[in-house]
Amino acid sequence: MTDDTYESGLVNRRRVLGDAWVDKSLANRNDFNAEFQELITRHAWNDIWGRPALGDKTRRYMVLSMMLGIHAYEEFAMHVRAALDGPPESRLTPDDIKEVIMMAAIYCGVPVANHAFGIAAGILREKGLLPTGTPVTPKTPGTP
To answer: Domains (ranges, CATH) in the chain?
Structure first.
């Protein structure tokens, strides 16, 4: 592999996750995990996120879904933040994230979705995108 694959991966990683997250990850490199950081930068962020076919927005949906499917809640939280903060063309809305979780309730299980709603709601509150203490009126079946 050439150094170009690492540099291209780093560009994609920064675009998707943001500079602050990537800088923090790279600052935490040590003799034990440095090779792993290089591996994911080259392969996940260059070889996969660098593919043109799907685009970042579709990949965001897929990653959120897969993280729930394998119960990788810390990674789910990281990608929720990245999806909300990403470039406008690939940013997801709170409603987009809600729909991912609703589907996960059926395909991954209600406990997974319940946990995911808690994680996502915390992040939305932290970002000021979900008011706290707002009462909700339940919808009557069959109404929009």
So the answer is: 1-51 (no CATH), 55-132 (1.20.1290.10)
